[in-house]
Every structure is written in structure tokens, then in C-alpha cells.
Automatic annotation (TrEMBL):
It comes from Roseibium aestuarii. The chain crosses the membrane at residues 21-42, 62-81, 102-130, 142-163, 175-197, 251-271. PANTHER family: ABC TRANSPORTER PERMEASE (PTHR43471), ABC TRANSPORTER PERMEASE PROTEIN NOSY-RELATED (PTHR43471:SF1). This is ABC transporter permease. The keyword Membrane applies. Signal peptide: none annotated. The lineage of its organism: Bacteria, Pseudomonadati, Pseudomonadota, Alphaproteobacteria, Hyphomicrobiales.
Length: 276
């Protein structure tokens, strides 16, 4: 079983390299992180805070937008694309189960995303460290950011597989992926903010609002990283919420893993429904 999963994963990794997915995603992540590092000297000076920590705090907010988008663009044609190309039945006619097929895709895409994050953010950490503008604590902050970003990417990969298995055309799956990104990363927070401003959930907000944030892997990722950094002095908004959570920040990581596991299981069931 493991051998078949790794075979599919290696195939997806080769496809990612051939399509320059690794290069493109790495370029995007490195470009934004280097820009934030170069612009981060302004807040670091007055606050007396390690410049690497300032950069990580900014990247924690930026990653909420970039990582889910990259993950969804990697995953949207995992099933629908195979159906579109007429290769799904061929793949599943070999001694390969539906779960092995999807898990192999997931491992391959996860490797692509992990390489991009490690190289893209690692270059910025190396630059700051070599220029003498970072400390060991800052390196640990970068390592935590990379690790939690891969978990966030895993959750959105699984969401992408569910979307891909729900349709039979890659173009439709791509449209659904963009809609999902907008809904979960942009509109979800706006909806919560609108409810709070309107006072519709005023009496329940102390208990409902943190739970609502936990249910969204993007918000859970941001809550954990900003709480771990103690970043209320560096960035506004969500950082203040992160510092006053009614639960341990580690619960946010558990929420991301739970979403990833649940949606991945759902995607496997949907693939079995498509091809009994």
C-alpha cells in the first residue's frame, strides 16, 4: 500500500516540477517574504523587537491569503482533471485503491507545497540571519511559521480534492476553487465582522466568535501564529483576538488537522462514489 501511494506521489512531484509549479510558488512566496523583510525595519526599530520576528508576524497574515490559494490551485484538478483527460479509469484499473490514489496525490502535492514554503521563506530567514538582523528566537519563529503553513496548505489541499471530486470538468473545479478561496479567506471574516458590528450576536460573541474562528483553518492558523508571537504590538486586528483566546493556542492547530483529516476522508468517499 505504502509503495503504491509513494509511486503516485512521485508522479505528482515530477508533474509539479515539469509544470514549474515549484518554481512559480517559490518565486511568489520568496518575493513577498523578501519584500516584507526589507520593509520591516521601520517597525522593528522603535519597538526594539527582532526584525525576524516582525517579518514572521507580517508573513503570518500574508500566508493566510497565499498558502490556501497555492494549495487550491495545486489540488483543483486532482480528480476532475483525471476525468477530463480520460485517465482516471486507467489509473484505477491498476492495483490501486481509491484511497491510495487520493493519498498519493495528497503526498505529492504536500511535498511540492512544503518545498516551496521551505525555500521561499527559508531564503528570507537566511538573508536576515546572514546580515546580522536576526536572533535564534527569530529562526525558531520562521521554522514554526513554515511548519504551520504546511498544515494550513494540507487543509486546503483536502478542500480542493473535495471540490475536484464534486465535478467532472477541470475548468469547473478551478472556478469552485477560486470561490472557496474567496469564501473562506476573504468573505468569512467579513461576515463575522458584519455580525459583530450589527450586534446580531452581541450576547453570544464571547463564546461564539472564537469558536467560529476555529472552524476556519485560515483563521485558526493566524490565531495560533499571532498568539505564539505575542504579536499584538506588531499587527492589529486579529492579533488582539489571539492574545485573549479562551482556549490554548494549540487547539487552533488541532482544528486545522481535524479539518484536513475530515475533508480528506470525505474526498475519498466522493471518489468511490464517482468510480465504484
Amino acid at each position: 500500500m505504502l509503495g503504491r501511494i509513494l509511486t503516485v506521489a512521485a508522479l505528482e512531484l515530477r508533474i509539479g516540477m515539469r509544470n514549474r509549479w515549484i518554481v512559480l510558488a517559490t518565486f511568489i512566496l520568496a518575493g513577498f517574504s523578501l519584500a516584507l523583510a526589507l520593509l520591516g525595519s521601520a517597525p522593528a526599530g522603535p519597538l526594539g523587537i527582532d526584525r525576524m520576528t516582525v517579518t514572521v508576524a507580517s508573513l503570518a497574515s500574508l500566508s493566510v491569503y497565499l498558502v490556501p490559494l497555492i494549495a487550491l490551485l495545486l489540488a483543483f484538478d486532482a480528480v476532475a482533471g483525471e476525468i477530463d483527460r480520460g485517465t482516471l479509469l486507467l489509473l484505477l484499473s491498476s492495483p490501486l485503491s481509491r484511497a491510495e490514489f487520493l493519498l498519493g496525490k495528497c503526498v505529492g502535492h504536500f511535498c511540492v507545497l512544503s518545498l516551496s514554503l521551505g525555500i521561499g521563506y527559508g531564503l528570507t530567514a537566511a538573508l536576515l540571519w546572514s546580515s546580522g538582523e536576526g536572533e535564534m528566537a527569530g529562526l525558531l519563529d520562521f521554522a514554526r511559521l513554515i511548519g504551520t503553513s504546511t498544515l494550513l496548505g494540507l487543509a486546503f489541499l483536502a478542500i480542493g480534492y473535495v471540490l475536484s471530486a464534486s465535478v467532472r470538468q477541470a475548468s469547473t473545479a478551478a472556478a469552485l476553487a477560486i470561490v472557496a478561496w474567496l469564501a473562506l479567506v476573504v468573505l468569512y471574516d467579513l461576515a463575522l465582522l458584519g455580525l459583530l458590528v450589527s450586534g446580531a450576536v452581541d450576547s453570544l460573541s464571547p463564546s461564539v466568535f472564537p469558536v467560529a474562528l476555529l472552524l476556519n483553518p485560515a483563521d485558526a492558523f493566524r490565531l495560533f501564529n499571532l498568539a505564539a508571537l505575542g504579536a499584538s504590538d506588531l499587527v492589529g486586528g486579529m492579533a488582539g483576538v489571539a492574545d485573549s483566546l479562551p482556549f490554548a493556542p494549540e487547539l487552533a492547530l488541532a482544528s486545522i488537522l481535524s479539518v484536513a483529516a475530515a475533508t480528506l476522508c470525505l474526498a475519498v468517499l466522493m471518489v468511490r462514489r464517482i468510480v465504484p
